[in-house]
Amino acid sequence: MKPVKYHVLHDISFDIRSGEFVSIIGKSGSGKSTLLYILSTMDTEYDGQLYLNEELITGKKTTELSRIRNEHIGFVFQFHYLLSEFSVLENVMLPAKKLGKKSNTEIQNDALEKLSMLHIEHLADKKASRISGGEKQRVAIARALINNPTILMGDEPTGNLDSYNSENVLQIFKRLKEEQGLSLLIVTHDMDFAKRTDRIIEMEDGRILK
Amino acid sequence: MMINWKVLLGIAKTHLLTKMKSTVTAALGVTFGIGAYITLVSFMTGLNQMLDDLILNQTPHIHIYNEIEPSASQPVSIYDEFSEAWNIVHSIKPKQSQKKIHNALPVLTYLNKDNKVKGATAQVRTQIFYLSGSIELGGNLTGVNIEEEVRLSNMADYIVEGTYTDLMNNDNGILLGAGLAKKMSLKPGDRVQISTVDGNIFPLKIVGLYQSGISDIDNIQSFANIKTVQRILGEAQNYITDINIKLNDLTLAPEMAQKLEKQFNVKATDLNEANAQFETGSSIRNLITYAVSVTLLIVAGFGIYNILNMLIYEKMKDIAILKATGFSGTDVQLIFMSQAMIIGVIGGVIGLMIGYLLSRLIDQAAFETEALPTITTYPINYNPWYYVIGISFALVSTFIAGYFPSQRAKRIDPVRIIRGS
């Protein structure tokens, strides 16, 4: 039997300006996460074109896509995926070490700066498995920011946090947008969260409603 | 694209250190395989070497003698008038001829001038009876140039009592076979009477005992100076029955034996002809050694394969994060490959050391047997090549064992794992 092509998404077309805070909302199965992973360059099975900084991304080799992710895209997941065997500082430093554009001491300084910006510099030497959920998510955000990306993407970054920590993360995102002009694209099903962003993209059955 | 080895090795190191138990287990597998290989191969080839030496040392590369055999052409075939006829000669017997090699002394001089020859030495072999009281035992007495024999066939190693100089300095001395001495309850310093086939009796003084380790030889064979034997037989100084040749290069033996046969009209056999079966024995023992070692390494390889597979399964999330944050599939593969190779190098090097230590231990172990008078401990062959082969084995097997799991890690789709949980 030949596998049948099944389109999760239809006629999607939108752009995000730099310094814009955009949220995507929709019910589960609406295709919002699929869209996010295509935009993140991790999912390459789609028809159409994807541009980042006016450069065509579609059709590039996987090693190039890895490099683009490394340099231009910061990612925050619902479950604060940290490397549990490494220290907080090492977790934050790793993408910058991979990029290899700065010396180790510079990277360490950058990492400590990001941690202090998120008020968690005191956790630097702790093992990633030894800190609380809210703290983990902030470490994940610090890691996403280490290479000063063009855009920060989040897949339900507050989905697994209590209201106090959710508010905290939202405040951090807003500050990043205002202070550093970072573009943000966050998938969420939390309407309260979405309402406080610049633009809401609502999805249903693989199409954008508005 | 450049590969940032420092970062990848750092991650590999952290994985290995946090999974210390699995790392040690995997490394021990390699250590065990390589250690066993080194020990086995050193011991086995040491034994092979010893067994070969046991025979080959005493065997000349080329042996020249006069074979008693019927003449191939009969007078009738020389006679022209019968050349067209159908000649039948019944019951051909060997011609009554001497055992001595014709012109032996010039032949010997000629051989000793040849630069391919390490040494050629003359012997007089004869059958005798050993007499001691009422005991009468048949056997062989060989007249030798003992100094040359010591130089060319390590004869000193087989003189268990007395020294070869004692024989050299005694015109009536005899180096008695150890088996004979035991049978006749004789010891060095005693006298033994020998009788020639013709019935002449001579008393000889036992100056030492000879033990080759092969009891069939030790029960019949004795040595005396070549002059002594010539005198016993009532023969002149040019009476020489055998010439033994050692060459500088053993492989030239067959060719040279053929040449000498034609040149001097004698019978010349070479060592390869006489000892083909030893080669076979050695190669079969080597085969067994390698079969066992390769089996051990394959088992170790499966251990590494399993542990890496497990590790990759446990590290699915880590792999997904690494890929999401910009590490390529190749980077991830290299992380796991380097883990396999680190295990291989550490396990292999420790294996070499353990193999060496075990070899030393076996080397010290007492091993005394009547059959091998010169050996006091187990033989070990410390050929450095075995260590090179051992570490190469370790690296190749860990590479193969690491390759397939790491290939799997390379292909893991991060989206599936991130969205799956």
Defining key terms:
heterodimer, A: 210 residues, alpha/beta, Rossmann fold, six-stranded mixed β-sheet, 7 helices, 39% helix, 15% strand, globular, B: 421 residues, alpha+beta, 2 domains, ten-stranded mixed β-sheet, 16 helices, 55% helix
Explain the overall architecture.
The complex is a heterodimer of chains A (210) and B (421). With 210 residues, chain A is α/β, with parallel strands linked by helices. Chain A has a single domain (21-208), classed as Rossmann fold (3-Layer(aba) Sandwich), CATH 3.40.50. Chain A contains seven helices and eight strands, in the order E-H-E-E-H-E-H-H-H-E-H-E-H-E-E. In chain A, strand 2 (51-52) and strand 3 (55-56) form a beta hairpin. Chain A is globular and about 50 Å long. Chain A starts with 20 loop residues before the first strand and ends with a strand. By secondary structure, chain B is α+β, with helices and mostly antiparallel strands. Chain B has 16 helices and ten strands. Chain B has helices spanning 5-18, 20-56, 75-78, 104-113, 146-153, 164-168, 178-183, 215-218, 226-233, 253-264, 271-274, 276-314, 316-324, 329-364, 384-411, 414-420, and strands spanning 62-65, 117-132, 135-144, 159-161, 173-177, 191-196, 201-210, 221-225, 242-247, 267-270. The A-B interface holds A 33, 37, 40, 42-43, 62-63, 66-67, 69-71, 75, 77, 79, 81-86, 94-95, 97-100, 143, 147, 155 and B 1-2, 4, 6-7, 10-11, 14-15, 18, 317-318, 320-331, 414-415, 418-419, 421.
Short description:
With 210 residues, chain A is an alpha/beta fold. Helix content of chain A is 39%, strand content 15%.
What portion of residues of chain B is helical? 40-55%
The total domain count of chain B is 2
Strand runs of chain B, count: 10
* CATH fold group of chain A: Rossmann fold
Can you count the helices of chain B?
Answer: 16
Biggest sheet, spatial arrangement of strands of chain A: 4-5-6-1-7-8
